[in-house]
Amino acid sequence: MKRWIPTREQLRRSKWLRPVAHHLDNERLWRTDRGSVARAVAIGVFVGFMLPVAQFLFAIAVAIALRGHVAIAAAATLITNPFTFPPIYWAAYKIGRFLLGEPDDEAAALRVESETAALLEQQGFIEGLWTAAQSAGAPLLVGLASLAVIGAATGFTLVWLLWRPRPEHRPDEDERPPEQ
């Protein structure tokens, strides 16, 4: 997990984070205690679901404002990535349709699928997915907001409940190296 979490120096050197880089010296933003990690996971998951681009930057800015661990907030945005993006957006669309009370008919699903395939061929993968997501409109937005809130609450709760502080290791007299 540590290999995916950026270091303080990597974040400080980022040209995109220059406006908030001076905040990264605050030690509270790097402390790995239960509260800051739980907030960071909630922030990262929420931003990861809600924003299709620049998730990393927004997660860090919100983590600074809410005193969460900035690197963990940035890493938690990876809940959405090129592999998880299509199924998450499909599920969000379905959830949004359900919450808005729209009928889930097979003809509409096939039409959306064929339109998306045509867009992917015409515009390329990323542009086609973006256009398809925009055309999904309100159901997608409602579904993503629902997933973001539920995911953030679940992430926060899991970290809060599963976090077990490590006892400080104090070497016994027998374990101490001999003094010279």
From TrEMBL:
The chain crosses the membrane at residues 37-64, 70-92, 140-163. Pfam families: DUF2062. Residues 17-169 form the DUF2062 domain. InterPro entries: DUF2062. Keywords: Membrane, Transmembrane, Transmembrane helix. This is DUF2062 domain-containing protein.
